[in-house]
Specification:
Blueprint lengths: L1 H27 L1 E5 L14 E5 L2 H4 L7 E5 L5 E8 L5 E4 L2 E4 L2 E3 L5 H8 L8 E2 L14 E5 L9 H4 L2 E2 L3 E10 L5 E2 L3
Antiparallel strand pairs: 1-2, 2-11, 3-4, 3-11, 4-9, 5-6, 5-8, 6-7, 9-10, 11-12
Protein name: Signal peptidase I
InterPro entries: LexA/Signal_pep-like_sf, Pept_S26A_signal_pept_1, Pept_S26A_signal_pept_1_CS, Pept_S26A_signal_pept_1_Lys-AS, Peptidase_S26
EC number: 3.4.21.89
């Protein structure tokens, strides 16, 4: 009888340790997210399941074109691409991205722009001053984010700039559906 209690106790202890480790990993290091909606098409599809790296920005700064998850509100997280970094001026004119007045290529949009530009602009013209907040440059500890589906995305053009505190983490691994499994390229 004592042996059975000891064995049962060991199983309970192992399960508790496993749950504790899973909780710690999910809370502080990695978490799953499901893409909700078309705002990141063609890069991400509605229903894609991804892993968010929650600790990366504790050891390095966000970079242009990182795909990030951020708290858009208390109840909703969004997934978008970082376009502008602190201290920069961002504008789009005639479907061309300008950072501090210099053209910047967006290779992840090349195909989509080709398809759509024949009948409408892929990204409506804007400049940083036109966005909520009216900033001339992106303030410290903030970034400008845009969805890859520029005509159907709630992003910095509507929400304003995103503070680094709002960012949950970077995501680049699609793990489901299986046929879309991939690591996103910049």
């Amino acid at each position: 009888m004592a042996k059975r209690k000891s064995e049962w106790f060991e199983w309970v202890k192992a399960l508790l340790i496993a749950f504790a480790l899973a909780f710690i990993v999910r809370t502080f290091f990695f978490a799953p997210i499901v893409v909700d909606g078309p705002s990141m098409m063609p890069t991400l599809h509605d229903g894609d399941q991804m892993i968010v790296n929650k600790f990366l920005y504790d050891i390095q700064e966000p970079e242009r074109f990182d795909v990030v998850v951020f708290h858009a509100s208390d109840k909703k997280d969004f997934i978008k691409r970082i376009i502008g970094l602190p201290g920069e001026h961002v504008a789009v004119e005639n479907n061309v991205l300008y950072i501090d007045g210099k053209k910047v290529k967006e290779p992840f949009l090349a195909e989509a722009k080709k398809e759509m530009m024949s009948y409408q602009p892929y990204t409506e013209d804007f400049q940083l001053e036109d966005l909520p907040g009216g900033h001339e440059t992106i303030p410290e500890d903030h970034v400008l984010v845009l969805g890859d589906n520029r005509n159907n995305s709630t992003d910095s053009r509507i929400l304003g700039l995103v503070s680094l505190e709002q960012i949950v983490g970077k995501t680049s691994l699609i793990y489901w559906p299986f046929e879309r499994m991939q690591i996103l390229e910049e």
